[in-house]
Design a protein that fits this description.
This is GST C-terminal domain-containing protein. One of its GO terms (cellular component) is cytoplasm. This protein is mainly α. Helix content is about 40%, strand content about 5%. The relative contact order is 0.14. The structure holds glutathione.
Amino acid sequence: MSQTNKAGGEKDHAVYKMADGDGQFRRKPSVFRSFISADPNSEFPAEKDRYVLYLNWGCPWAHRANIVRSLKGLEDIIQLVVMDFTLTPEGWVFNGNNGTMEKDPLYGFTKLSQLYFKANPEYEGRYTVPLIWDKKTETIVNNESSEIIRMLYTEFDEFLPEGEREVNKPSGGYYPQRLRKDIDEMNEWVYDKVNNGVYKTGFASTQDAYLSNVVPLFESLDRLEKHLNDRGTKYLFGDHITEADIRLFTTLIRFDVAYYTLFKCNYKMIRYDYPQLHRWLRSLYWEENSETKGVFKHTTHFETYKEGYARALRNPIVPYGPAVEIMPL
Ligand SMILES: N[C@@H](CCC(=O)N[C@@H](CS)C(=O)NCC(=O)O)C(=O)O
């Protein structure tokens, strides 16, 4: 493979090396895996103004956490720190660009890696968002979005009005007991083939690696289309939004705009080829009702998607289209 570098001399920097020697991108497991708990005697008890969520607008994993923080009405309880969406050779940085913070508000840091080293001076993994920081013990509680969102569903409920608590929701909330098996089962293949599938496709560095991921990606989108079509429901598992919707949304809202071109996921487009998924995506984005609370739209930042992925790929060109980011309802 040619290593021609049109974007400058940084292309070979470790931060941009996504594929392994065989051309496949393999996401490393997150390292910080503690849980915030409603139990006041736990290691990380839920408290107001104790925890901080670090993220940027570009990242789909971070987007999950941002959606749940707002859906749950935790804006006054969990602080949000937004970093720039451009992946630099030093990882994510604070620089004040694009309306983000100039410096880390807690320590004045300029790089996310500094928080990782403050939490663990021996840390060796990647410096990823999202992460939840504990101001009291000054460490990272968790940097795995699938776990962060689960803490947010329930563990801060005592700070919320009765009706917003998961136990009091007639639907059972975002991860209802009666749907757990179905949601977990869907999460498993949607994570591998769709959420992470677009990355494995886009970061593949050989034709074989690319094909071995792009084909299952579209087979899985076909499967999701059929799931919605067969059930005829508004959301993936009925009339209420669940975790499965939140996890799929952050990938599909980036699909036509960014993954289609930049990650070469260009076999089909959501808007033209998947009527059910397109209907589902637009209703989450556009409808402002008691289910969506307008949160899906307000946490979506289209302007960062194309540019963020182009930069992460060291691609100097930001694609011009599509003309419309998301079609009207
Ligand atoms: N498993 C993690 C993945 C998070 C992740 O990979 N985030 C990306 C941004 S979309 C990141 O921070 N990448 C920086 C890097 O790998 O250097 C999660 O779901 O929380």
